[in-house]
Amino acid sequence: MGPEADHYPHPHLLGIEGLTPGEITLILDRAQHYAEKNRTADKTSNILAGSTVVNLFYENSTRTLTSFELAAKRLGADVINMTVGTSSVKKGETLIDTAMTLNAMNPDALVVRHADSGAVKLLSEKVNCAVLNAGDGRHEHPTQALLDALTIRRHKGRLHRLTVAICGDIAHSRVARSNILLLNTMGSRVRLIAPPTLIPSKIERMGVEIFHDMEEGLKDCDIVMMLRLQLERMEGSFIPSVREYFHFHGLDRAKLANAKPDALIMHPGPMNRGVEIDSEVADDVERSVIREQVEMGVAVRMAALEILVQNQRNLAGEHS
Amino acid sequence: MMPAIRAKASGKTAFVNVRLLDPATGLDQTGGLLMQDGVIAEIGPSVTRDNLPSDCRVIDGQGLCLAPGLVDMRVQVREPGFEHQETIETAGKSAAAGGVTTMVALPNTDPVIDDVAGVEFVARRARKVGLAKVFVYGAVSKGIEGHEITEMGLLHQAGAVAFCDGVNTIASARLLRQALSYSTFFDGMIVQHPEEPELSRGSHMNSGELATRLGLSGVSPLAEVIQIERDIRLVEMTGGRLHFSHISTGESVEVIRKAKKRGLKITCDTAPFYFALNENAVSDYRTFAKLSPPLRSEDDRQAIVMGLADGTIDTIASDHNPQDQDSKRLPFAQAAAGGVGLETLLPITLELYHNGHLSLLEAIDKITHAPAKLMKLENHGTLKPGSAADIVMFDPNRPAKIDPYKFQSKSKNSPFDGRLIQGVVLRTLIDGREVFTHPSCIEGS
C-alpha cells in the first residue's frame, strides 16, 4: 500500500507527523533487513564506520538508550552516551548550550530524549547533524511507533485495514500520539480506551474513536496495545487508585476475550504488572509480542540511523 | 494623583492640516491644534497656518491623524528587579515609539510595589527619565502572595491608581472580598487576572486539538470564566469596583456582558494578542506566542472582536511583558509567558478599524480616553484644551512589517514578529516635547 519512496527527504526524525506512507515503508523495509541480520551470527556492519552518534538523554531510559547504543554500534559508529538529569542542570540554557557544544564536536547524529514536548525540535534547529527524537515530553516517540509497526507488519503482513486499540494513559503518552499518526497514515483504524481523565481534549479530531469501557473498545480488535500508567507524570487525581484502574482498565484474560482470537498484545515497556496488564496475558507466548517489540527496536533504530546519517553524508558531499 | 513634575516644552507649537481625533469629545474632523508651554491651547478647524501667532513652530500634518497619546493600562516595566529585561527608561523609549504617553505599571517587580516607597521609587525614576508618564498599580496583597491585603489607602494616597497582584490571580475569595470592600471608601479599583489557578496549574497553552497534537498540557478556557463568575458574585456582595484584565474567551465576554447589564461595577480589557491571533500561533512550539492567558481558538478570537465592537470590552491594553531571550529560547513548557506590546498596540488596534469592526474614533477611544477614564487619569487621553499636550500623530494607512529587532524595548519577544500591518506612528509628544519622531518625518516638517 501507499506510494513507494526510495528516498527519505527529511534531515531529522522528529516525529511521525509529516511522514508519508512511502517514507514510513522505506524505514520499515530497511529495518526488516536489519531484523533478519540481527538474528544471524554476523550482526555488525561498518556502514556507519567513522561516524559519531551521541545519545543525549535528559530523561532516564535504560531500555531506549541501550537500544540506540546497540543499533549505532552494530552499524560501526562511535557512540557517546550522555545522560543529563534535568534536576541537576539549570533548565533550558543547558539544552541549547549542550547542543552547541556537541555540535562543535561534529557528530553525525544526535539521539535526544527530553521531558518537554518540542525540546528535541528546538535542539534540531541549533545543530548541523541529524537529530532523532527518542521521546519528547508527551509529544512523540517516533522510533517506538515504527518498531510497533514493524512488529505488527511481521505478524499481520500489513499495516492497513487493522483495528488497533491503544489502551491506558493516553494523556501522558508520546507513544500513543506517534502510533495514532502512524497507523492512521498507513490506513488502520485506531481506538483509544481509557478513563475520561486520561483522554486528552479533542483527540478524536486526530481520527480516532474513544471508548471508556474495555470490553466494548476491545471488541474485534486485531491489536491490543497497552500503555504504561505514567504515575510520575500525573499531577492530581487522574485515577482513584491503582486497584480500581486495574479492575476497569487493566488487561486480563476476560477483557482480552473481546478482541479477535488472534489479536496481538503489545506494550512499549516497562510494564507495571498488575496495574495495566496481567502477567498471565503479558507472558502469553501465543499472543504477546512484547519481547519482539524490544528486538525490533534495535532494527528500526539501525534503519533510522543509517538513513539519516547517509543523508547527512550525501548532503555534505553535495556541499563539498 | 502622582505628581508629574517634569520638563514641559516651552513656547508654541501647532499642528495644522491634520485629522483631529478626540474620542473624549467625539471630535473627528480636519483642523489644527495649538500647544503652548506643554498644554493644549486650542483645537479645531479654526486653527490654521494663517491665524497662528508668529512665534509659533508649525508642523503641517498633511492630512494625517492626530490623536491623544495612548494610555496603556497594563505594562510591565520590570524595574526594579528585572532590569535585564526592561527598565523604566527602555519602556519609556518603547512607549514613545508606540505612541504611548501614559502607562500604568504592574506591581510585580522585585521588590513588589506593595508599600509607599515602591510607588515613590517608580514615580521618581519616571520623572528622571522624562519619557512616558508612568503610574503604578499597588499590590492587592503583601508580596503579591495572596494572603494579607496591603495598605491600600496609603498606596492610593501615594499615587497608586488601582490595585492588582500583577500576573497572579487573586485566588482567595476572602482576600478579594476584603479588598473590594475596603477599597470602596476611596472608590479604588481592583484589577483581576482571571484564571482559576488550580484549573490552570501546570498548563502552557489553550486546551484542545492543537495542545493534544503538540503534547502540551492545555488549560481549558473555562478556567477564565469560572474565575470571572466567582468574582462577579463578590462584586455583587461588596459593591466594589472590579476590572478583569486581558480577557480572552467568548464565554468571558458573555458573562461580563450580562453582569454589566445588571449594573455591577465591572469593566474589562483585552490585549491585541487576543483579537489579532489565535492558538495556531504557537504551532511549531513558538515560544514568542506563549502568553498568559494563552491564545485561544478562532471562535474565541472572533468573540473578543465582537465584545470590543459592542462595548462589552471597555479598553485595550498592550499587556507589555518583556522577556529576555534566555527566558524564551527554551522548550515551550519551560519558556516564560508574555509578549512585548507597547510598540504594536496602535497598529494592531487599527486592524479593528481596517477590518470594519470599529470606527477609527472608536478604536482610538479604546486606547486613549477609555482607559484614562477608567483609571481616573484626568486630562489624559484627550485633546481638550487645558490638557497636557500628550499627542500622537500617525498614518493609519501606511503599510509596514513588524520587526522586533527594531523595537526600542530591551526585549524582542513579540508574537507579531513579521506581521504585516497598516498604521505607523510618526510623532509622539509628551507635555509638548517631541519624544519620538519617525525617520521619515525628521526632515521637511
TrEMBL record, chain B:
Residues annotated for Zn(2+) 2 binding in this entry: 193, 246
Positions bound to substrate: 108
Pathway: Pyrimidine metabolism; UMP biosynthesis via de novo pathway; (S)-dihydroorotate from bicarbonate: step 3/3
InterPro entries listed in its UniProt record: Amidohydro_3, DHOase, DHOase/Allantoinase_Hydrolase, DHOase_cat, Metal-dep_hydrolase_composite, Metal_Hydrolase
Leader sequence segment: none
Keywords recorded for this protein, A-Z: Hydrolase, Metal-binding, Pyrimidine biosynthesis, Zinc
Superkingdom to which the source organism belongs: Bacteria
EC number: 3.5.2.3
One Pfam family cited in the UniProt record for this chain: DHOase
Alphabetized GO MF terms: dihydroorotase activity
Active site: 319
Catalytic activity from the UniProt record: (S)-dihydroorotate + H2O = N-carbamoyl-L-aspartate + H(+)
The Amidohydrolase domain, residue ranges: 356-436
Gene3D superfamilies, A to Z: Metal-dependent hydrolases, Urease, subunit C, domain 1
Every Dihydroorotase catalytic domain range: 66-252
Binding site for Zn(2+) 1: 319
Cofactor(s) essential for the protein: Zn(2+)
Function: Catalyzes the reversible cyclization of carbamoyl aspartate to dihydroorotate.
Family, as annotated: Belongs to the metallo-dependent hydrolases superfamily. DHOase family. Class I DHOase subfamily.
Protein name: Dihydroorotase
